[in-house]
Amino acid sequence: MFSAPNEPDENKLASGFAEARTHVQGALRHAEREGISSETLAFALMSEALPRMVHTHGPAWTAEMLAKLAHRIGAGLV
C-alpha cells in the first residue's frame, strides 16, 4: 500500500490526468450552467470519487488521504 502524498506530484500522476481533469472541469461548468449548485456538485463528485479511490488504493490509503486533506482544510491550506 502506498502512503498518501502531502501534495500530488504531477510527475507521478497517471497519464491522461490533464485530459481527465479538463473533462471534469467541462462537466462542472456544464452542470453549473444548468443550475446545479456547487454543494450538490461537490457531493456528487465525492460520491463518485471515493469508491474509486477505495477500489484502486484500498480503504487505509483512502482514509489516510482524507485525513491529510481534512488537516489541510482545517489549517486553511485548501
Structure description:
The chain is mainly α and 78 residues long. The protein has one domain (17-74). The protein has three helices and no strands. Helix 2 packs antiparallel against helix 3 (59-74). The longest helix has 20 residues, at 38-57. It starts with 16 loop residues before the first helix and ends with a helix.
- What is the total domain count? 1
Please report the total strand number as a whole number.
0
Radius of gyration: 14 Å
Average residue-wise pLDDT: 88
Distance linking N and C termini: 25 Å
The largest pleated sheet is described as: none
**Category from helices, strands and their pairing:** mainly alpha
Principal-axis shape equals: globular
Q: What percent of residues are in strands?
A: under 5%
Portion of residues in helices?
A: 55-70%
Q: Unreliable runs, pLDDT <50, ≥5 residues?
A: none
How many helices? The count is: 3
Oligomer: single chain
Kindly summarize this structure in a few lines:
The chain is mainly alpha-helical and about 80 residues long.
Keyphrases for this structure?
single chain; 78 residues; mainly alpha
List the SSEs and their pairings:
Elements: H1 17-33, H2 38-57, H3 59-74
Helix pairs in contact: 2-3
